[in-house]
Amino acid sequence: MLRQPPLLPFAIGGALGTLVGVLGAAWYVSVRVSPEPRRTIYDGYTFTPWELGLPYEAVSFPSADGLRLSGWWLPHADPRGVIVGCHGHAGRKDELLGIGAACWRAGYSLLLFDFRGRGDSDPWPQTLVSREVDDLHAALAYARDRAAGLRIGLLGYSMGAAVALLAAADAPDVAAVVADSSFSAGREVVADAVRSVLPLPPEVLVLAADELVHLRHGYRFSRVRPVDAIARLTPRPVLLIHGAADHVVPVTHAQRLYAAAGEPRELWIVDGADHCGAYFADRVTYCRRVTGFFDQYLGSIA
């Protein structure tokens, strides 16, 4: 009679293989969430406000922990208010030039800036709404100094939209917020990303990735919850914009944010638009609606 091979070594080997696979996948997720900054000569090959015929000044200001943050200050001769723009997770300030030009032509001064580790700001590991909130507070301080007495509005995209909601909750002088393609909670948006690229249940990977991010960078994306902060904007207005076909941040995030927000609040879901795609679906309508929102509220909220 042939003896059966012992099963324990196979079981241990299978368990170790599974553990290595999970840890490898979790490391991949953590690197996607917080990549190290990488720069090439092509990073400087960007459009500036000069190409659009807008007056601007290249500026810089310090973050709370001493990094140099880079930006453009676009002064208006007779400003109705100041709008501070916040780009997305892997973006930079020049990506906001289209809507920024529309806001300037509508009568607003603007501050467009790079979060740490992006664009022309000092290198730093990119985080998912951790140090970026501090960076936005530094940008708000700069805008207050440059335009004392003017109302301030925030305009953010994707991660920058989440940052805007979180920062505005603790900055009572922010009079209005436009948040395009924001996520409602860090854990949920990372889980959505895992489902879209890996044929694995997201719960364990998200938990492991959160631990790895904490070990590497000292923060937890699971604690980033704009959905818990948005109610603190009341009675200041918020306009939530989202593409119905968003494959990065599903539209359910916008619906949860809207449900949690107080009045006045607006939700604009654009049919067929993907992530941050509402502007490109109809530039004229988008610019008219965003500037109209700021026109309605920046001058009327004390």
What does this protein look like?
It is a single chain. This protein has 2 domains: 1-33 and 186-223, no CATH class; 42-185 and 226-297, Rossmann fold, CATH 3.40.50. The chain has an 8-stranded mixed sheet with strand order 1-2-4-3-5-6-7-8, sandwiched between helices. The protein has helices at 8-33, 97-105, 131-146, 159-169, 186-197, 202-217, 226-229, 252-260, 278-281, 283-297; strands at 57-62, 68-74, 82-86, 109-113, 152-157, 174-180, 238-243, 265-270. The protein contains 10 helices and 8 strands. The chain is α/β, with parallel strands linked by helices. The radius of gyration is 21 Å and the shape is globular. Mean pLDDT is 87; it is low at 7-22. Helix 1 (8-33) packs across helix 6, helix 3 (131-146) packs across helix 4 (159-169) and helix 5 (186-197) packs across helix 6. The termini are far apart.
In total, how many domains does the architecture comprise?
2
The CATH class of the largest domain turns out to be Alpha Beta
Largest sheet: 8 strands, mixed
Helix content: 40-55%
The poorly predicted ranges are 7-22
**Which CATH-level-2 architecture of the largest domain?**
3-Layer(aba) Sandwich
**Oligomer, anyone?**
single chain
What's the SSE blueprint?
Elements: H1 8-33, E1 57-62, E2 68-74, E3 82-86, H2 97-105, E4 109-113, H3 131-146, E5 152-157, H4 159-169, E6 174-180, H5 186-197, H6 202-217, H7 226-229, E7 238-243, H8 252-260, E8 265-270, H9 278-281, H10 283-297
Parallel strand pairs: 3-4, 3-5, 5-6, 6-7, 7-8
Antiparallel strand pairs: 1-2, 2-4
